[in-house]
Design a protein that fits this description.
Helix content is 34%, strand content 18%. It is built from ten helices and 13 strands. It has a seven-stranded mixed β-sheet, with helices on both faces. A hairpin with a 6-residue loop joins strand 4 and strand 5 (79-82). Helix 2 (23-35) packs parallel to helix 3 (51-58) and helix 2 packs across helix 7. The longest helix has 22 residues, at 227-248. The radius of gyration is 20 Å and the shape is globular. It starts with a helix and ends with a strand.
């Protein structure tokens, strides 16, 4: 708890301010089922990890999607994702129960700034029953000096936020399925209650192993000040190597600030007609062609969008 007490600027009470789950996926599922009732609305930023929509729907809720848009950075000129405030504002109403936030973001690799998180908090404050479920599983995988800002640290948001993370991505142990949520006891209690009917328990040996890993990760590792710094450097090298390879063949990636994905523009790539099935969008046809002919599999980006917004992802894939 020392790590998160430091990160969240408060002493975390391990008895009632943390809930352990079977990975981050189950922890988010428990949070959604604890607080979302049939007819409630949940704000989701797109493109989005596809479990969010399914989990909200299984609870009887309705997703209100806010697409992230692309623009040229004022500082560097490089493409970057941003939140359109009017679109965000329009997604909130008296029916809104939660916001599902993913930071760093899957699949774009966007790292939200304090100003962007404050923008989200601005609308959360306007609706007293809204909570934030913040999926932060890529919290330690950051590049180019990016800093991880926690939405729970934004003014007034600790009381409204469940911060979710896991060991899987950071330590490459996704099969262990150990995740957790941290937040005020009033919200953590909801996860405890939901988990009575979702999971009986989390593997005790894996919990013990993860606890040891979290402690050891703060120490120097292979010439880096911490294991976290080492992991981030390893992923940055892979990001840069893959980015160069893609550019060399005419695919343009949008450089991620964090995470493990590379969101890439394939609009200039022509897919052979023999790989395009009736009704198939370009991103799916491209991934089919790439898998069959090159043995490399990417993710078609329309999979990250709701039906109304799929056009946003047709010309892009994620590696």
């Amino acid at each position: 708890m020392l790590l998160y007490s430091k990160e969240l600027n408060r002493e975390i009470n391990w008895t009632n301010e943390i809930a352990v789950g079977v990975g981050a996926t189950e922890t988010i599922y428990a949070a959604v089922n604890a607080f979302v009732q049939p007819g409630d609305e949940v704000v989701v930023l797109e493109p989005a990890f596809d479990i969010y929509t399914a989990q909200v729907q299984m609870a009887g809720g309705v997703c209100r999607y806010v697409p992230l848009h692309v623009r040229a950075s004022e500082q560097t000129g490089a493409k970057e994702f941003y939140i359109d405030e009017p679109t965000l504002a329009a997604a909130f109403s008296s029916k809104t129960r939660a916001v599902i936030l993913n930071n760093p973001h899957n699949p774009t690799g966007k790292v939200f700034t304090a100003e962007e998180l404050e923008l989200i908090a601005k609308y959360v404050r306007q609706y007293p029953r809204v909570i934030i479920i913040s999926d932060e599983v890529y919290e330690h995988i950051l590049f180019d000096g990016k800093k991880h800002v926690r939405v729970a640290n934004i003014d007034g948001m600790w009381e409204r936020t469940l911060t979710v993370s896991s060991a899987g991505k950071t330590f490459s142990v996704t099969g262990w399925k150990v995740g957790w949520a941290i937040g005020p006891s009033s919200l953590i209690k909801g996860i405890y209650l939901a988990n009575n009917w979702i999971q009986f328990s989390v593997s005790t040996p894996f919990q013990e192993a993860v606890a040891n890993m979290l402690e050891l990760a703060e120490k120097p590792y292979k010439g880096f000040p911490t294991f976290y710094a080492f992991v981030a450097d390893q992923y940055k090298q892979k990001r840069d190597r893959l980015s160069k390879a893609l550019v060399d063949v005419g695919i343009v990636p949008i450089t991620p600030g964090g995470g493990i994905f590379l969101y890439s523009d394939i609009s200039t790539v022509k897919v052979p007609e023999s790989f395009v099935k009736p009704g198939m969008t370009k991103d799916w046809a491209f991934c089919r062609w790439l898998t069959i002919t090159k043995g490399v599999t990417a993710i078609p980006n329309t999979a990250f969008f709701c039906p109304e917004n799929k056009a946003e992802g047709i010309s892009c894939v994620t590696f």
